[in-house]
Specification:
eight-stranded mixed sheet, seven-stranded mixed sheet, globular, disordered C terminus, alpha/beta, 21 strands
Length: about 325
């Protein structure tokens, strides 16, 4: 599994950070998913290995501008590039008004069909680009969700011993089971093909959270996750100074949760623009604060940082990151 940060700043961009967006895909697949789409996302994509023609779906955590103002421009650019495949956008219901109205008022026509899915209407996991995707409600000033991506189409073998034990004769039925299909036997039994698979490894899982002042909202989701990508907008000192009104997490609050949840990998992002200098204003303040409470693999996301979750459940950075838990302060 691979993911690339197209923006890691909160609220407004800085000289080295765009506002929030993330690209995610399975390494074996060209199709990818976009989570949030702040202004300037399409420009960031020019520096990343993702094609708008291969975009499988868009997942928006909430309607604040730094998470969705870039979406209409990206959709228009995909059309100008010749996209014809339909595209589904998952997120708050307001998107089904915001996007069509903006397209209409700007006289913009798309060459492909868009489907909007209200996150509150989801009753089961979404299947796209080799993932099962689940929505988890968060705590913010507006309706906000995290999206959990669970590897779905993974290598497997048939459990032939189980098939023989249950009296399922070798033949075309085994082929259907190998493909994960539902099979009805002559005796009336209904089988789920996946129940007879032996997986080469356990499905990997990544949680991509939106804005959230209560990481514990993700306690259930974290039980099966390898990675949590979550905002750490402020230090605890700044949180204490400005009060609870912004409804964001501090590095300390997030790190305490990640340690309690026994998460192996924590990636902090969505940093306040005030962390762009040196000393007390350096992003390293957030790193050191988090390290006091969290003892797993810690990463501070960088714009265009390209990360990989390997089969052992470990995150590594494939390009601009200097080292685990460290950050190249570009300011």
């Amino acid at each position: 599994m691979e993911f690339t940060f197209l923006g890691t700043s909160a609220g407004t961009p800085t000289k080295t950070r765009n506002v929030t967006a993330l690209a995610l895909r399975l390494k074996r697949s060209k199709q990818w998913c976009l989570i949030d789409c702040g202004e300037g996302t399409q420009h960031q994509l020019l520096h990343a290995p993702y094609s708008l023609a291969q975009l499988g779906a868009v997942f928006i955590t909430h309607v604040h501008g730094d998470h969705c103002f870039g979406l209409v421009g990206l959709l228009a650019s995909a059309s100008m590039a010749g996209r014809t495949e339909p595209l589904t956008i998952y997120g708050p219901a307001e998107l089904s008004q915001f996007i069509p109205l903006t397209l209409k008022l700007t006289d913009t026509w798309l060459s492909y069909e868009i489907t909007f899915v209200d996150v509150n209407q989801l009753t089961e996991a979404v299947q796209v680009a080799g993932f099962k995707v689940y929505a988890w409600p968060l705590n913010h000033r507006v309706l906000c969700h995290a999206w959990q991506f669970v590897e779905h189409d993974i290598a497997h073998q048939l459990d032939t011993e189980k098939l023989v034990h249950e009296g399922i004769a070798r033949g075309p039925i085994w082929g259907q089971i190998q493909r994960g299909e539902q099979v009805t036997l002559t005796d009336g039994r209904v089988l789920n093909g996946r129940d007879y698979w032996q997986l080469a490894q356990q499905p990997r899982s990544i949680i991509v959270a939106g804005d959230n002042d209560s990481p514990e909202c993700l306690s259930e989701a974290a039980q099966s996750a390898n990675v949590l990508i979550h905002e750490a907008t402020y230090s605890q000192a700044i949180c204490d100074k400005i009060g609870p009104a912004p409804m964001h997490s501090s590095a300390a609050k997030l790190a305490k949760f990640a340690q309690q949840a026994q998460l192996d990998n924590l990636v902090m992002t969505h940093f306040s623009a005030r962390f762009g200098g040196k000393g007390a204003a350096s992003i390293n303040v957030l790193e050191q604060e988090a390290k006091r409470f969290y003892h797993g693999r810690l990463w501070l996301a960088q714009d265009l940082g390209h990360y990989q979750l390997n089969s052992a459940g470990e995150v590594s950075c494939l390009n601009r990151c200097l080292n685990k838990g460290g950050f190249d302060d570009l300011n």
